[in-house]
Amino acid sequence: MIGLMINRTGKIYKINSKLVLALAIALISFSCIRREPLNDAQVSRSDFELKKESFEKFFPDYFSKLDDKNLDDETKNYLEYLFTYMPISDFADYDFEFWQRHVEFSIMAKSTFNWADSIPEDIFKHYVLPPRVNNENLDTARMVFFRDLKTRFEGMDLTTEQAVLEINHWCNERVIYRGTDERTIGPLSIVRSGFGRCGEESTFLVTALRSAGIPARQVYTPRWAHSDDNHAWVEVWIDGLWYHLGACEPAPVLNTGWFDIPATRTMLVHTKRFGNENDKSVLTKTKNYEWVNALAKYAPVKTIKVRVLDENNLPVWGAKVNYQIYNYAEMYPLYSDITDFYGYSDFTTGYGSLEVFVTDGVKCTSRIIKPEEEGWVNIVFGNKNVLTAESAHYIPPIAGEVVKPDEELVKETEDRIKQNERIRKQREKDFYNEFSGKHFAETFGYEENIIPYLIQCRGNWPEIEKFLIEASFMSNQDMAIVLLSELSEKDLRDSKSEILSEHLTFALKYKNSDIPEDIFYEYVLNPRVEFEMLKTYRKKIVNSLGQDKVEELKNNPSKILEYIKSLVVSDLEYGGNTYDANEFNMYNVPITPSAVCEYGLADIRSLKIYFVAFCRSIGVPAKIDFASGFSQYYHLGEWYDVAIDETQEEPERGKVFFVSKDSLRDLKYRINFAIARYDNGEFKTVDLGWETPISSMNKGVNVPIGEYMLLSSLRLEDGSVLVNRQYFELAGNEIIYLNVELPEENNLETQYETFNHSNVSDIYGNILNSKSIFGSNNYLVLIWLKQSAEPSKHILRDLKSLYGELANNKIKVVYLTENNFVSDEIQGLAETYIDRELSLLYRNVNCKTGGAGVSFPQIIMINKSGDVLFKSAGYIINSGDMFLQKAK
Question: Which whole-number Å values give the CA distances from 69 to 41, 52, 413, in the listed order?
Answer without folding.
Answer: 22, 19, 51
